[in-house]
Amino acid sequence: MEPSITREEFRDRETAAALEFAESVWAEIVETGKVERADEWMRTQGSQVLRKMLGDALTARSNRVRRLRQGACVCGRTVDYRQRKQVTLHTVLPGRDVDARVWYGHCPTCGRGVFPLLRSMKVDAEGFTRPLREMALLAGVIEPYASAQTNLLGRFAGIEISRDKIQAEVVSAGRSAKSYLKDYAPALEPTVQPRPIYVEMDGGMVHVDGRWQEVKVGCLFREEDRVETSKDRGEVVQRQVVAVRGTPEQLWELLEPKLDVRGDQKFVVLADGAAWIWNLAQKLKNRVEILDWFHATEHIGVVARELYGEGTPKAEAFREKQLDRLAEDQVEKVIEALRFLAGGLEVSAQRDVVVRELAYLERNRERMRYRTFRKQGYDIGSGAVESAIHHVVQQRMKRVGMRWSEGGADPMLNLRALYRTHGAWDEFLGWRAAAA
How many domains does the chain have? Predict the structure, then answer.
């Protein structure tokens, strides 16, 4: 058995290595003047010293664990140590690999072979440390796997990881993220009454298993989490996001744990008019339903263009008049105007458009009391969920030529939702590490 080194021996060994490195720094930068890429050289060469020091420290730690008869198996029993083995750990340090000699043991209870030190470090079967796996996971959530491998990890971090490993980390973490989002993620704290909690929902399309499918996104934030950045404009500084490629009920399974639907908390549901959203909204008893102002203006604009032509003065005048009415709670006057127009149109195509938009406004008439809503202090724009769709879905999953399978898309959606939720990413990583 190789003798364990003392603290003093370790310090002397690493001090000698540091002094040797200092000599090479002096020669490389001061004497030869290679300064154009001096920081890059330091990063690469310095990492060699750090990786060697870490390997020595891990070797010494393994020796101490064995000497103190520590180190448990998965079953909780202390292992019987058999021999030391050379291992290579893949770390976050530039250059990645760290060599160490660590003790291997056998569990007398369950018969497993165990490296107690590696188990305590949560090193996986391939030798990847937890911080490196988390770095690979985040890179794969932010960027396509090829770019994550080459740019984020390779060029920026100086670490070589295969695309398959990055993808495997995303899929594995994404599956556990589903359980976290549904059963363990913290609920949204109640607001200071009578301020509401905003519930915004919308959908976006992703190409999965050979066809375009809708991803339903929910965005939650408190009135206190919205700050004014300028007149009539605000920004949500904290929000919770969930996303699912599935039914409205599956979206609600992720939304409900975040909301106290049994108390007297008031909710404002902001949406674009899709029936499935208003159906879900009925699960919130103390609610106000608001049709997003931008979508209301779009539907008025459709009628204006169909009747008077794109960009014409008549179209703009008609549009502005109806929007002025909507802004002043005169929804009935807008509906009456469209009903009158529909009755006098001879061109069937125009009449069909007006009738369709008239039906849309009639279905949502109580959700378009914009003057009342503004007077009560409510936001009337669903920009938060539209932003969430852009950041959760489009930025990562809807790039040119991207095609997804079910097994890749759903884990990514779970992780992207966590990534875009304030504070959720680190909370999820901590929960996952504790559960491992």
Answer: 2
Cβ proximity of 197 and 188 under 8 Å: yes
Same domain, 121 and 202: no
pTM: 0.90
Query: What count of Cα atoms within 13 Å lies in the side-chain half-sphere of residue 205?
Result: 5
List the domain range (segments joined by +) for residue 92.
7-128
Examine residue 362 and state whether it is found in any structural domain, yes or no.
yes
62-91 tens-digit pLDDT: 999 888 888 788 888 888 888 999 999 999
On whether residue 145 sits in a domain, the answer given is no
- Inside any domain, residue 190: no
Among 122, 123, 154, 124, residue whose Cα is nearest residue 139: 154
Q: Give residue-wise pLDDT tens across range 319-353.
A: 999 999 999 999 999 999 999 988 888 888 999 99
User: For 242-280, what is the HEC assignment?
Assistant: EEECCCHHHHHHHHHHHCCCCCCCCEEEEECCCHHHHHH
For residue 194, say if its preceding peptide bond is cis, omega within 30 degrees of 0.
Answer: yes
Q: Using alpha carbons only, how large is the chain's radius of gyration in Å?
A: 30
Determine the Cα–Cα distance for residues 418 and 33; give it in Å rounded to an integer: 47
CB 243 within 8 Å of CB 392: yes
Report if residue 359 sits inside a domain.
yes
Same-domain check for residues 215 and 331: yes
Among the candidates 74, 109, 128, a domain finishes at 128
